[in-house]
Design brief:
With 601 residues, the protein is mainly alpha-helical. It is built from 27 helices and 4 strands. It has a two-stranded antiparallel sheet with strand order 1-2.
């Protein structure tokens, strides 16, 4: 019977009442949906936009934010790497300005320049490992796949080949390179050699060239000196100090015309060439035969001597020192193509006053790539957090298979033990029936956390830790489920059982053919409860199964959340919620019948 009579529904006051009720219900629904939508939106964000509380991520409709997000991703969330490579001064990625207007020839020339043979030590790999490792990017994933192929997807072969233990492929990363840092030299190990073989295959749009101009500008700012343009030859005391003590030796060339100074330095240091040969592993007859080191990126005694040599004015006069950096090579490339600065300015839409001012158009190139591949860039940001979650779950441990087995066994046991107990209480009038029911109801008064320690101690004493039995036995029988089933069984017609008795049916036939067959709605509710209990079981599973081989999905996702970004955490929560949502969607009719309308067939 409705609260409002049919004749009263046309009154204005009644319609207002209905309107207020619908508005309140809509507000209540929105208050539940809005936080969920924020979490869905947050699962598609990264550090640059994770604090934006909007349902639709900004980068989906804002080209500027999409560009900044792409820059953050390419530069591995390392702002210092961006500032140094582009010679800019901003406080975070959100403050990056859009690139200056340029002509298409600028991008075409940069692509052509990248197709020339350039040293691998002049650039680092973009879209690689971030500083805190909270997101897995595509080149980090590609490197992992490359090494897996080299090692035939065998972790033992990886350990034997490279002499390093690796727990799982998921944690394989390549080392970040500080190619402008004087103290950074590569270790000539097999793993680094394979890394540089992989680096040679990197696409040109994934390269981040090191800007000596940016590093020099940063140095001048730190010492409080006036800005000046970096040139190929040393033109000031500040530049000489920076070149000799800070700049990486791979960018510092010493002319062969001053080779006598190098030989003099080695003679003063080693006295006898035999001592040098012993350290270098060479067979030189005299110091005059020792050349300047050609490869100055890998660590070696010869490179160490070269660094000492160029660090002192008395050893290496500055007139023999020249710089060879990506910027200067880019400038030479343009001059050889256009012949004059005026033609370069005209072709690129620039207004440089000298060739030394020409910088690498990495920012402009990145923007052009974003515009050209806008849909792919958006798709990557929408899915990369979820990709990391699925990779972690599938590659690391047995969380998925353990959870499937645990949930299936929990459902089967719950649908077997609880109905049998409820059937006995419903069919037979036991003398202690009310005491038994009171005992079952009493278990509902205590949260599961209260019994956690006693259960752990009992299962430990029984030697069942780190087994499925430890997970299943404590929840196999449920007082609430038995109480619910008994009430449902009591509502079934007694005449059906009497007819079965007349036909000579066994107790098992009556239980299976009549009781269970007519109780599908309530059994669906019990099965859903068993699934939810097993699937969402985190703390109990973590305590009882401390062996990683027995961890369930919830435990693995918890571990993932400890070292992941906020976006990955939200993505993992959404992934964890999907199975429960799907089961409820597909079983909702049975569940509603079990809760609201018990039926008889």
């Amino acid at each position: 019977m409705s609260i409002v009579l049919h004749t009263e529904r046309k009154n204005i006051s009644t319609r207002i009442l209905y309107g207020v009720m619908y508005i309140l219900l809509a507000i209540g629904a929105l208050s539940m949906i809005y936080p969920f939508l924020l979490m869905v939106s947050g699962s598609m964000k990264s550090r640059i936009d994770e604090n934006e509380f909007n349902i639709v991520p900004t980068y989906l409709h804002d080209e500027s934010m999409l560009f900044k997000k792409q820059i953050e991703s390419k530069y591995n969330e390392n702002l210092q790497l961006y500032l140094q490579s582009n010679n800019e001064q901003v406080f975070n990625f959100r403050n990056i300005a859009m690139p200056e207007v340029h002509k298409p020839a600028l991008i075409t020339d940069w692509i052509e320049f990248n197709q020339t043979e350039l040293p691998l030590s002049w650039f680092v790999i973009g879209y690689g490992p971030t500083g805190d490792g909270k997101i897995i990017q595509r080149n980090e994933r590609e490197f992992r796949n490359y090494i897996k192929a080299v090692c035939n997807d065998d972790l033992n072969e990886f350990s034997q080949r490279f002499g390093e233990p690796l727990e799982n492929w998921f944690f394989l990363k390549f080392q970040s390179e500080r190619l402008l840092d004087r103290t950074f030299l590569l270790n000539p190990s097999d793993l680094f050699k394979n890394f540089y073989e992989f680096k040679a295959q990197i696409k040109s749009e994934d390269r981040i060239f090191m800007s000596a101009m940016g590093a020099y500008s940063k140095f001048l700012k730190q010492i409080g000196a006036e800005p000046e343009i970096l040139t190929q030859t040393i033109t000031s005391e500040n530049m000489e100090r920076w070149v000799r003590t800070i700049l990486h030796p791979q960018f510092v060339n010493f002319s062969t015309e001053g080779l006598s100074h190098w030989n003099k330095f080695l003679t003063a240091k080693y006295q006898k060439v035999e001592f040098l040969n012993k350290l270098y592993g060479t067979t030189y007859v005299s110091f005059s035969e020792v050349p300047l080191p050609g490869d100055r990126i890998y660590s070696s005694p010869q490179v160490t001597d070269y660094m000492l040599f160029i660090s002192e004015q008395k050893n290496s006069p500055k007139e023999f020192i020249t710089l060879n950096t990506p910027e200067f090579t880019w400038q030479k490339f343009l001059m050889s193509k256009y012949g004059s600065l005026e033609k370069i300015n005209e072709s690129h839409g620039r207004q440089f006053n000298s060739v030394d001012e020409v910088r690498m158009p990495q920012k402009e190139f990145d923007y052009a790539m974003v515009i050209k591949n806008k849909s792919d860039v958006k798709s990557n940001f929408l899915t990369r957090n979820f990709t990391m979650v699925f990779e972690y779950v599938l590659l690391y441990g047995k969380g998925l298979s353990n959870t499937v087995i645990y949930c299936l066994l929990s459902i089967v046991l719950s649908l077997l033990v609880n109905p049998i107990a409820a059937y006995a209480l419903s069919r037979y009038k036991l003398q202690s029936q009310f005491k038994i029911l009171l005992f079952l109801i009493a278990t509902m008064a205590f949260p599961a956390v209260v019994t956690m320690i006693p259960n752990f101690l009992l299962l430990r004493d029984l030697g069942l830790l780190n087994t499925f039995a430890a997970l299943l036995l404590p929840s196999m029988a449920n007082g609430y489920s038995i109480f619910l089933l008994k009430g449902f069984f009591d509502s079934l017609p007694r005449e059906l059982y009497e007819a079965a008795d007349i036909d000579g049916a066994s107790e098992w036939s009556k239980f299976w053919m009549i009781t269970m067959n007519l109780s599908k709605p309530i059994l669906a509710v019990i099965a859903l409860g068993a699934f939810n209990g097993a699937y969402s079981n985190f703390m109990f599973a973590f305590i009882l199964c401390q062996d990683r081989e027995m961890w369930t999905l919830m435990v693995w996702l918890y571990q993932l959340q400890q070292f992941s970004s906020q976006g990955v955490v939200f993505a993992s929560l959404l992934v964890a919620a999907v199975p429960t949502l799907l089961i409820f969607i597909f079983c909702q009719n049975l569940i509603i019948k079990g809760i609201v309308v018990p039926t008889e067939k």
